[in-house]
Amino acid sequence: MTAVPQPRVLTFRRSVRVARAAIVAFIVFNVVAVQLMFVAAGPGKNPPGTIGRLLGLYLALAMALQLLLVARLPVVDRAFGMDRLTVWHRWTGLAIFWLALAHPAFVVLGFARLDGIPILAETANLARQLPVLLGMIAAGLLMVIVALSVRAARRRLSYEAWHAIHLLLYVVVLLGVLHQVYEGTAFRVNPVTQVYWWGLWAFALGALIAGRLVVPMVRNSRHRLRVAAVVEESDDTVSVHITGRELEKLPARAGQFFLWRFPGHNRWWQVNPFSLSATPNGRSLRLTAKGVGATSAGLRDLPIGSRVYAEGPYGAFTAAHRTRGATVLIAGGIGVTPIRALLEDPDLTGHVVVLYRVREVRDAVLLGEMQNLADVRQARLHLLTGRTGGGHRPFAPEQLVALVPDITARDVYVCGPDAMTAAVLDSLRRLRVPPRQIHAERFHLAT
């Protein structure tokens, strides 16, 4: 197989490479700038306090970068994809957590040595100062959020509850900024450091407000989305058809998702990521969801004509990221929704093989549509059923090769449950499918 020759795809790939290089350069520049700013401030006469000050600078930088990740800037989304950005968000969050522990620990240790008193006594003294107290509260809230985000706790929370808890991150950011205003010293060395530091934070906060508030409000005001129809696909799955104004100007593509809110049906902070289950046609949008949470389970009761608030589109799980002339689409369970949209997408040219994994045939949502689309575009559709275990491993390397002998020469799109996606990605690595040809979508979103 040869690389996809379409000029539009090649132009998109070049723009992605440029965007990635610019983003990496931005991160490197800020890391170097923080280090230079620390050096310019001088070492100080208190080693633990000096270390704490350096850790505080990197903590603030990590928080600013986290804001940029949460802002979901289109250029960053297109360059790396929401799935990869979500992983970075998780790792950045862990870095912030450990820095938020280490920074005050070294600062308190330094002051305790200078004052010659126990650490706990010094902690109590510092807590009487409002700027320090704000930082301590921020660190405490951060620990609560991280504790409730570990896998064991996360499994016990609904998506809606987890999302609501993560809204506390904005309180942490506010307290952190106030703490810097009163306590920051390294960026007050000269006017240049002050302009750089507050310029970085203005950019991060501005990007967050624009990306998460202004742009969604403008788009929703323009398109005025409403529920046009609710169709039951199975006992626990429904499709919601949505119409609006000037939808042809909405920059949505097959494979992408929105964050959906249904005012009047759910509380304003309850939001769910649902992929488009049909290629956008400029007249309507469709999402298909399985009733696993409070929001998705209640979609069948949405009144026709009710307002819809959508934030997005997000994700790089699109045909624009292809590198080869043929494609494999692998879906598991309700992960079939973006796969179904991609199968319909006219931009996904070349031969297509679809692997659809479900436990039983009756669990295969949208199977009829998938079969019709496969017939129209002369694609091969394999429905893989049965329980995984023992000798039945449908995504083992040898099974993938048996189903798709030329899989190493194709782009592979994967969307499904975590266990299935992990198994597929592991097999693709063992088959030495080049990473640039592998596209995966998971929904572990940041707030």
UniProtKB/TrEMBL annotation:
<feature type="transmembrane region" description="Helical">
    <location>
        <begin position="54"/>
        <end position="71"/>
    </location>
</feature>
<feature type="transmembrane region" description="Helical">
    <location>
        <begin position="21"/>
        <end position="42"/>
    </location>
</feature>
<keyword id="KW-0560">Oxidoreductase</keyword>
<feature type="domain" description="FAD-binding FR-type">
    <location>
        <begin position="220"/>
        <end position="320"/>
    </location>
</feature>
<keyword id="KW-0274">FAD</keyword>
<feature type="transmembrane region" description="Helical">
    <location>
        <begin position="162"/>
        <end position="182"/>
    </location>
</feature>
<dbReference type="GO" id="GO:0050660">
    <property type="term" value="F:flavin adenine dinucleotide binding"/>
</dbReference>
<dbReference type="Pfam" id="PF00175">
    <property type="entry name" value="NAD_binding_1"/>
</dbReference>
<dbReference type="InterPro" id="IPR017938">
    <property type="entry name" value="Riboflavin_synthase-like_b-brl"/>
</dbReference>
<dbReference type="InterPro" id="IPR001433">
    <property type="entry name" value="OxRdtase_FAD/NAD-bd"/>
</dbReference>
<keyword id="KW-0285">Flavoprotein</keyword>
<keyword id="KW-0479">Metal-binding</keyword>
<keyword id="KW-0411">Iron-sulfur</keyword>
<keyword id="KW-1133">Transmembrane helix</keyword>
<dbReference type="InterPro" id="IPR017927">
    <property type="entry name" value="FAD-bd_FR_type"/>
</dbReference>
<keyword id="KW-0472">Membrane</keyword>
<keyword id="KW-0812">Transmembrane</keyword>
<dbReference type="InterPro" id="IPR013130">
    <property type="entry name" value="Fe3_Rdtase_TM_dom"/>
</dbReference>
<keyword id="KW-0408">Iron</keyword>
<keyword id="KW-0001">2Fe-2S</keyword>
<protein>
    <submittedName>
        <fullName>Oxidoreductase</fullName>
    </submittedName>
</protein>
<feature type="transmembrane region" description="Helical">
    <location>
        <begin position="132"/>
        <end position="150"/>
    </location>
</feature>
<dbReference type="Pfam" id="PF01794">
    <property type="entry name" value="Ferric_reduct"/>
</dbReference>
<dbReference type="GO" id="GO:0016020">
    <property type="term" value="C:membrane"/>
</dbReference>
<dbReference type="GO" id="GO:0016491">
    <property type="term" value="F:oxidoreductase activity"/>
</dbReference>
<dbReference type="InterPro" id="IPR050415">
    <property type="entry name" value="MRET"/>
</dbReference>
<feature type="transmembrane region" description="Helical">
    <location>
        <begin position="194"/>
        <end position="215"/>
    </location>
</feature>
<feature type="transmembrane region" description="Helical">
    <location>
        <begin position="91"/>
        <end position="112"/>
    </location>
</feature>
<dbReference type="InterPro" id="IPR039261">
    <property type="entry name" value="FNR_nucleotide-bd"/>
</dbReference>
<dbReference type="GO" id="GO:0051537">
    <property type="term" value="F:2 iron, 2 sulfur cluster binding"/>
</dbReference>
<dbReference type="GO" id="GO:0046872">
    <property type="term" value="F:metal ion binding"/>
</dbReference>
